[in-house]
Amino acid sequence: MSILHRATFVTSAAKPEQLPAPTTAEVCFVGRSNSGKSSAINVLANQRRLAYSSKTPGRTRLINMFGIPDNIATEEWLGFLVDLPGYGYAAVDKNTREEWADVLGGYLHSRSSLAGIVLTIDIRRGITTLDKRLANWIAPTGIPVLALLTKADKLPYGQRLKASAAVQKELASIGALTAVPFSATRRIGLEQATNLIENWISPKAVP
Ligand SMILES: Nc1nc2c(ncn2[C@@H]2O[C@H](COP(=O)(O)OP(=O)(O)O)[C@@H](O)[C@H]2O)c(=O)[nH]1
Ligand SMILES: [Mg+2]
Q1: Which end of the chain has fewer CB atoms within 10 angstroms, the N or the C?
Q2: pTM to 2 decimals?
């Protein structure tokens, strides 16, 4: 069983300053609103409604934090999964867009325990201007990125690989990037994504 299946809700916050101090390995999920962030968290955690998924884009304005309990030291967390507010929702006003930049930029620069970033990209849409802007914030941090090309079930196999190669190329400024076609509904790429995220949270000792 994956350690991610033990994930449970810890807290919600409007601003990074309201989150508990960074202590243990944290993996955040970022991406356009409606790109399949919450669905990815749910399937990785093997839970239906851990992170809410909604047909109405732009609804999650909060940072939602989930904890993976440590089985040995039961009072402690092994790691955290963090669902960040989505971006790119056309109907939001300028103030809300600036707020998004503050929250995301603030989060990325204040969480010293950030071990990895999961970037969700709708496979049919590909990289957008806002994704590029985000990539420019991430690149200098050196934090590894898993690009999940979500809703891969909507494309045939060959086109999935093409989309994945295109993203890999467009986000080349991020040194440690892995692009994986992913589907929450069809569980495509689930094993690869799980292994990578588990390893960020609890690196396996190589004998
Ligand atoms: N076909 C398909 N639809 C998906 C998949 N993942 C998410 N969706 C749908 O895309 C919409 C947005 O998903 P959600 O996880 O809420 O996106 P978020 O805003 O990034 O958290 C919902 O209607 C989901 O049912 C997938 O793997 N395949
Ligand atoms: Mg969501």
Answers
A1: C
A2: 0.94
